[in-house]
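User: Hi! I have a protein structure encoded as tokens and I'd like to know what sequence might fold into it. I'm fairly new to this, so please keep things simple.
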């Protein structure tokens, strides 16, 4: 990941100053000052590199590393005579630790120059045009910059022979056994196009965000320290000497280029290479595009930045590459990176700040979550002043104390989290965090739930905080999706006594006057809110079941229950055996569901809810073909882009209800592609293949009318 190193621990004892303290900031620094600063930068960067690449031990942020590296490069550009052969700018990474066999790369695995601002992009493009003595706009390929671990795969006669990490760019570590465990990595190439005698493919091993979240959740439940970020997760998983361990990790791989190539005809452009690799069934991220000039690059950058939060994997920027290989050859390399490519970075998602205190938040199941109060810090363009510390076990494992400098990470929609402490910045008076003995909301005693690494309030329904959190969940986007009813409004409605349970939400229409009198609400927003509540009556059974907040019933299980039973009444009446017949439902979940619906209090609440709302949330597209119109029976449908009126999961369930098979990729066999906002290259592919395209509005109409498509 080039400059985008994460953080490291234990800065060298001989370099104790925080990076910026000695920064040369006088108007006229002396030569000695500048040389001293250069030495210091080199030392620090070497050390951070070593920790990052070899020890997988994080402590300084990407942003800090990048800033130091940029400072080094700027000084070296100004004073090229002072560049030493051992400068981090003159090599790519650090030597392997020797636990794995060493691999000499046939052609060096280089790094990329980083562009941080739009002006840097113009400079890059200008240098490329100057290098090629061309005035016209350059053809580039733009790709996402995947935040993972660089690897090289060597295929001889189409057979995967060897996989290696980048290491220092010249010598890496052999990880063939580990790579073989990644399902998307072909062991044998196949498909269209003559396969060369020797083919070296380069790409990135990464951990998709969903797998990362799942892995960390499980680690937390086991009381183990979770990974700090997906990049570390991928690196740590790949560095397992026992490949069986690697096999258990949810790793993925995308290729983004070539190393060696012998025999056969090499394509003439990067775009053709990517197409060829894909044709050989190597995984290529389909977000790449051919763009023209700096303007085309910038447009791609902006579109990717907008989509970053919705992507299923972490990207830390985009990469621009000159498309024509002959032009690349003419441009050549500088010490550590090619002149024909550059990485345009997004704002870092990790920063460090000071922990001011810890509050305890009560969740809807009574579990207390420690939440860090932070000195406000900008992370990925958003000010963060609170971040979750997840649970008490993790707090203890990470040894977080008030006064510590902590690393904060914010990725997409995920709540900001504290991922670790910078031990060297701990002040002498840092205060350990004491376990609470009583619920901060209702004062009831708390109990420790050993198997869950959790501390739970014993107040139950009497706990105001638990009830309030339950309502927040009920109205949330993936549940009843009541637009305009955010956390703050729920706080207000509960505080004003307007809402104490689910049914009250649907009774709000009768409280219009009182709502309008509330401080924060104008008449228009009250009317919009009431409309959104009315619309929630049309939600399907799956989201409704999810909204109820039954323990261990996530979105996916809720949808499965809905699909299986079709009506709320049938779910309520189902016995354990029937429940265990539902996909993903084991004995624990079956018992939870049964307990929930057997609970007398819940039954009263549900009765009242159905009475007040006048709805049963009955309808869900049943699974049996005979029961409903099946306009998409046996047809393959692909979803792409962001949908606004339903979640992906819901769209999938509803399409399946019409008989469709929902797939992730567009091929000749695809019947229909539904495009939401900012669709990716799947739309282009659909257009190229002449596959029918439908907007979200058209999909809604189809779901509503179930009309047959020709
Ligand atoms: S091309 C000489 N393309 O970023 C160019 N690299 O700093 C070689 N990376 O080690 C890299 N996504 O592991 C390229 N689409 C992409 C990439 C990508 C992530 C990583 C790669 C490399 C580092 C370069």
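Assistant: Happy to help. Inverse folding works backwards from shape to sequence: for each of the 710 positions I chose a residue that suits the local structure. Here it is:
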């Amino acid at each position: 990941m080039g400059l985008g190193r994460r953080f490291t621990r234990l800065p060298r004892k001989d370099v104790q100053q925080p990076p910026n303290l000695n920064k040369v900031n006088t108007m006229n620094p002396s030569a000695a000052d500048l040389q001293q600063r250069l030495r210091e930068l080199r030392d620090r960067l070497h050390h951070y590199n070593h920790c990052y690449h070899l020890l997988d031990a994080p402590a300084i942020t990407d942003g800090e590393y990048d800033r130091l590296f940029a400072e080094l490069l700027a000084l070296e550009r100004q004073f090229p005579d002072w560049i030493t052969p051992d400068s981090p700018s003159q090599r790519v990474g650090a030597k392997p630790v020797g636990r794995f066999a060493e691999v000499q790369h046939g052609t060096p695995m280089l790094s990329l120059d980083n562009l941080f601002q739009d002006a840097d992009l113009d400079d890059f493009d200008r240098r490329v045009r100057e290098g090629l003595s061309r005035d016209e706009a350059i053809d580039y390929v733009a790709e996402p910059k995947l935040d993972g671990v660089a690897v090289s795969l060597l295929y001889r006669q189409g057979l995967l022979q060897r996989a290696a990490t980048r290491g220092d760019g010249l010598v890496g570590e052999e990880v063939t056994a580990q790579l073989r465990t990644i399902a998307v990595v072909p062991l044998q190439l196949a498909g269209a196009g003559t396969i060369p005698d020797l083919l070296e493919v380069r790409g990135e091993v990464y951990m998709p965000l969903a797998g990362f979240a799942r892995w960390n959740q499980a680690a937390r439940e086991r009381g183990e320290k979770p990974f700090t970020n997906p990049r570390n997760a991928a690196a740590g998983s790949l560095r397992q000497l026992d490949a069986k361990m690697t096999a258990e990790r949810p790793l993925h791989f995308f290729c983004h280029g070539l190393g060696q190539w012998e025999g056969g005809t090499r394509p003439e452009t990067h775009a053709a290479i990517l197409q060829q690799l894909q044709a050989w069934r190597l995984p290529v991220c389909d977000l790449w595009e051919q763009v023209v000039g700096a303007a085309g690059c910038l447009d791609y950058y902006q579109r990717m930045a907008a989509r970053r939060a919705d992507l299923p994997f972490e990207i830390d920027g985009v990469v621009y590459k000159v498309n024509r290989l002959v032009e690349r050859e003419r441009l050549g390399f500088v010490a550590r990176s090619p002149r024909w490519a550059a990485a345009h970075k997004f704002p870092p998602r990790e920063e460090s700040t000071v922990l001011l205190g810890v509050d305890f938040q009560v969740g809807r199941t009574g579990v207390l979550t420690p939440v860090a109060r932070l000195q406000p810090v900008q992370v990925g363009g958003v000010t963060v002043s609170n971040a979750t510390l997840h649970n008490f076990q993790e707090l203890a494992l990470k040894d977080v104390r008030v006064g510590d400098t902590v690393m904060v990470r914010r990725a997409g929609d995920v709540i900001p989290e504290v991922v670790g402490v910078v031990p060297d910045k701990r002040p002498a008076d840092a205060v350990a965090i004491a376990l609470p003995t009583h619920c901060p909301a209702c004062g009831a005693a708390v109990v420790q739930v050993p198997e869950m690494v959790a501390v739970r309030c014993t107040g139950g329904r009497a706990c105001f905080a638990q009830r309030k959190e339950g309502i927040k969940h009920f109205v949330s986007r993936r549940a009843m999706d009541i637009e305009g009813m955010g956390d703050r409004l729920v706080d207000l409605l509960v505080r004003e006594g307007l809402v104490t349970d689910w049914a009250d939400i649907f009774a709000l229409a009768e409280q219009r006057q009182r709502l309008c009198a509330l401080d924060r609400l104008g008449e228009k927003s009250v009317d919009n809110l009431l409309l959104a509540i009315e619309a929630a009556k049309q939600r399907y059974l799956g989201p409704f079941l999810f909204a109820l907040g039954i323990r261990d019933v996530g979105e996916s299980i809720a949808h499965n229950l809905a699909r299986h039973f079709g009506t709320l009444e049938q779910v309520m009446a189902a016995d354990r055996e029937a429940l265990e017949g539902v996909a993903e439902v084991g004995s624990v979940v079956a018992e939870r569901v049964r307990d929930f619906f057997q609970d007398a209090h819940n039954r009263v609440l549900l009765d009242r809810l159905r009475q007040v709302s006048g709805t049963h949330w009955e309808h869900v597209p049943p699974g049996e073909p005979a029961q409903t119109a099946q306009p998409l029976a046996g047809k393959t449908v692909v979803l792409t882009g962001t949908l606004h009126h339903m979640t992906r999961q819901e769209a999938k369930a509803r399409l399946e209800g019409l008989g469709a098979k929902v797939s992730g990729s567009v091929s000749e066999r695809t019947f229909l592609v539904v495009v939401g906002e900012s669709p990716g290259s799947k739309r282009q592919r659909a257009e190229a293949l002449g596959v029918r395209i439908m907007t979200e509005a058209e999909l809604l109409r189809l779901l509503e009318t179930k009309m047959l498509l020709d």
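A useful reference point when you look it over: Confidence is low (pLDDT under 50) at residues 1-21, 91-97, 622-628. Feel free to ask if any position seems puzzling.
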